[in-house]
Amino acid sequence: MAADKLLAIDIGNTHTVLGVYDGDALMGHWRLASVPGRTADELEVLLRGLFNVKGVDPDEIANVSIASVVPPLTSMFVDVVGKITAAKPLVVGPGIKTGLPIQYDDPREVGADRIVNAVAARSKYGGALIVVDFGTATTFDCIDEKGVYLGGIIAPGIAVSMDALFSRASKLPKVALEKPPRVIGRNTVHAMQSGTYFGYSAMVDGLIEKIIEETGEEPTVIATGGAAGLISAESRKIDRVDELLTLEGLRIIYGMNQAVDKDRQ
Question: What DSSP letter does each residue of the chain carry, written as one string?
């Protein structure tokens, strides 16, 4: 196997997703809880164990690409990766080449994960696009036919909404995110599941329709993130589910910046 494997790390508020690439091929990927209180020693042991399970030799990881919305965890991952590999991580942020013109009042405000998703979607699918990422927040990112990032929408995530309902309404139980047997619930659990599942699906489709109305384009709609598969099954507007879109974007952006560095030499 090649000794220049790439470790892609997407650090979110709730989960961190990692993947190891050998060229364009994804060797393995993992989803971890984003735990601010975890020590560097614990993280190092965890990563070494995960690599070992998939037969990944850390000495063969020569490249690391990171997108993060949790600064304290960013620095910890950079430190730990430096201990177990010989790679110097590339952290997606201002100054990093993405090939994506950004029409945002302040481009620095756009989350790294959102830009990475947009780059991956543009590379894989082309044309006008909407990327819906079901994470701690549910984000909608819009790319036009020319490949310009237009901006997007940020809404509360499904789990955040369900937790808020449970914590603020003393008589309501905590329920699993599942599709109930019917829209009109005949018990409290099914009623809550209906409001979340069907309500969220309707919100997603409604916002996509508003975006289409405003842009005048017919985009391909890509869903990613933890609940993408569940909600897309009900949605009338989501065209594809790509659960590892962010990892792919990290791989693409790393390649872009490596090419730029070579041109400068």
Answer: --S-EEEEEEE-SSEEEEEEEETTEEEEEEEEE--TT--HHHHHHHHHHHHHHTT--GGGEEEEEEEES-HHHHHHHHHHHHHHSS--PEEPSTT---S--B--SSGGGS-HHHHHHHHHHHHHH-SSEEEEEESSEEEEEEE-TTS-EEEEEEEE-HHHHHHHHHHH-TTPPP------SSSS-SSHHHHHHHHHHHHHHHHHHHHHHHHHHHH----EEEEEETTHHHHHTT-SS--EE-TTHHHHHHHHHHHHHHHHHHHH-
